Automatic annotation (TrEMBL):
This is Probable membrane transporter protein. Keywords: Cell membrane, Membrane, Transmembrane, Transmembrane helix, Transport. It is a multi-pass membrane protein. The keyword Cell membrane applies. It comes from the Bacteria.
Length: 253
């Protein structure tokens, strides 16, 4: 497959993945297969995907930051403990078969989807009156658990962060999305540094893909900020469906 054909496959899909990821997380469910289909080797697909998604995520994160849609009291503990959880999850992944987690998720995702579907109005989330100590404790737990999931398995991490912040901490939807972006961006940067050091980023493909990712993230985050639950709720359901489909396919093949 020549360079032009690779870009014709990769660029549109990276734009779509960036658009979805900026709204509901889960963009990697589309972007990583795009690089694989275009013929990149597994390590270069992972590294180049991390490069383009990291740059795209930075732009959508900055839109949420400029809109002041974040909460540092809960985001900072989540970021710190997500690193710890991710490291532990990665170690566990070396020893255990991820198939066990796939079965658990296949059973659990439909339940999560039903909860999201029945929750007609994310904008009517009642803020929970939690002490600062409780917020930090719960945020740390969210970061540790979902960071561990990210290190062990990965797909849909941003989606689960959004759902955790809204349901556990009672944060409004946009603040939850902003927090999820900050956590994801930080962990993605750490991972990207490793791939750059190892020389596993194909820049000739990654740079055009990154431009498409920027466009997708910029447009998607703008729509999310303006329209809130009107676009976020259906997109969450789309991501959960994509994740469920991936899990079933992984077990089937």
């Amino acid at each position: 497959m020549d360079y032009t054909e690779q870009l014709l496959i990769i660029c549109p899909l990276i734009f779509i993945s960036g658009f979805i990821d900026s709204i509901a997380g889960g963009g990697g469910l589309i972007s990583l297969p795009a690089y694989n289909v275009a013929g990149l080797s597994p390590h270069f697909a992972l590294g180049t995907n991390k490069f383009s998604s990291c740059i795209g995520t930075f732009f959508s994160t900055m839109r949420f930051v400029r809109n002041k849609s974040y909460d540092l009291t809960s985001a900072i503990p989540s970021i710190l403990f997500a690193f710890i959880g991710s490291a532990i999850g990665s170690k566990i992944a070396v020893c255990l078969d991820a198939g066990i987690l796939r079965y658990i998720l296949i059973a659990g995702i439909p339940v999560i989807a039903i909860v999201v579907f029945k929750k007609k109005n994310f904008s009517n989330i009642v803020p929970k009156k939690l002490s600062k100590v409780k917020i930090i404790t719960l945020s740390s737990l969210i970061g540790f658990v979902i960071g561990g999931y990210d290190g062990f398995f990965g797909p849909g991490t941003g989606t689960f962060l959004i759902l955790a912040y809204t349901s556990v901490l009672g944060l409004d939807l946009l603040t939850s999305m902003g927090n999820a972006k900050l956590v994801n961006l930080t962990s993605n940067l750490a991972s990207l540094i490793v791939f750059l050091i190892e020389g596993k980023v194909l820049f000739v493909v990654g740079i055009p893909a990154a431009l498409c990712a920027i466009a997708g993230h910029y447009i998607g985050s703008g729509l999310a900020i303006r329209n809130g639950q009107k676009i976020v709720r259906p997109m969450l359901l789309v991501v959960l469906l994509l994740l469920l489909t991936k899990l079933v396919c992984d077990l089937s093949f």
